[in-house]
Amino acid sequence: MARRFSQRYGHVKVDDVMQLNSISEEARIAIWNCLYIAFFNNSNFIDRNRGVARNIWVYYFNKAADKIPAYSDEYGYQGSLLTIIKSWIADSDWHKVYDLIEYLLDITGDIRNFKLDQYLNSVFKKFNLGYTIINGFVTPITSEEEVKSIQDAIDNSPQASSLHFVRALELMTDREQPDYRNSIKESISAIESICKKIAGDDKGTLGDCLKVVENQSHIHPAMKRAFMQLYGYTSDQGGIRHALSEDSVTPTLEDARFMLITCSAFNNYLLAKIGS
Predict the structure, then answer these.
(1) Radius of gyration of the chain from Cα atoms?
(2) Taking each helix axis from N to C terminus, what angle separates 221-236 and 206-215, rounded to the nearest 10 degrees?
(3) Max Cα–Cα distance, the chain, nearest Å
(4) With bands split at pLDDT 50, 70 and 90, how would you rate the model's confidence at 70?
(5) pLDDT of residue 238
(6) Most CB atoms closer than 10 Å: which of 4, 8, 21, 192?
(7) Residue 137, beta-bridge partner list
(8) How far, in Å, CA of 130 to CA of 90, rounded?
(9) CB of 35 within 8 A of CB of 67?
(10) Tens digit of pLDDT for each residue in 119-134?
(11) Can you give the pTM of this predicted structure?
(12) Above pLDDT 90, what percent of the chain?
């Protein structure tokens, strides 16, 4: 999407152009409109959308089950379920809006041929929200290539490797207690897992398995050395793969994001080489 005049000529704040720790009023309206049109007011989901709204009232808002408001008709002082959900999106802290979105994605994920994440991602992109939904998680990654790399690694890898990538993503995107250290561990563990699978050695070290992969002409020796150096970083820097010490360095979001993207790309490369 082309940048608007105000963006091109500097008449808006940087935070408004790429929203990382906020959601503008315009974007909140667009998120609600997306949810309302795609799901809550969609005649294809009659009964299911009402059930989801009641689920949000009882299990997400933690409100009394015997006091569930009407779905869309306004009765009493508290308004309808849809009005309450709309108000939550309009007025809550920015991170709570994303929490609700993840909850909605979780409880609607079994609906066949319904891709709520795709609708919402188009809104995120249009309004310059600094996040993309990947595998049900609102993730601080916006590059289409990086998003595709991570999603491909989750979708196409053997189960053990895929689960490590899912866990790395989950730990990195936890907005209340992000765990970047263990996210990095999970990313590198995904590579250990895929290399063990290729080498046919469940007990081998990453170095041993990469040597086998190299000998099978799947990777260039320089690439193997480069990844072993990256593996060495996780072993040495800040106690990431070992016990913490007094001089341990705390990993950052940028560290965890780099490792997740890099490991997913290397994982996909190995899968492509095996299939070639």
Answers:
(1) 22
(2) 170
(3) 73
(4) very high
(5) 55
(6) 192
(7) 134
(8) 18
(9) no
(10) 999 999 988 899 999 9
(11) 0.77
(12) 59
Alpha carbon distance 175, 183 (integer Å): 13
* Alpha-helical segments (H) within 127-220: 144-156, 159-173, 180-199, 206-215
Sign of the torsion formed by the C-alpha atoms of 78, 83, 86 and 90: negative
Which pair of structure tokens corresponds to residue 246?
């007094």
Structure token pair of residue 126 = 């249009």
Tell me the residue type at 79.
Answer: G
Q: What are phi and psi of 257, to 5 degrees?
A: -65, -45
Over the chain, what is the mean pLDDT?
Answer: 86
Express the helix, strand and coil content of the chain in percent, nearest 5 each. Answer: 65, 5, 30
Would residue 136 be called left, alpha or beta, if left means φ above 0 and alpha means ψ between -120 and 50 degrees? left
Question: Sorting pLDDT into bands at 50, 70 and 90, what band is 248?
Answer: low
Q: How far apart are CA 88 and CA 103, in angstroms?
A: 13
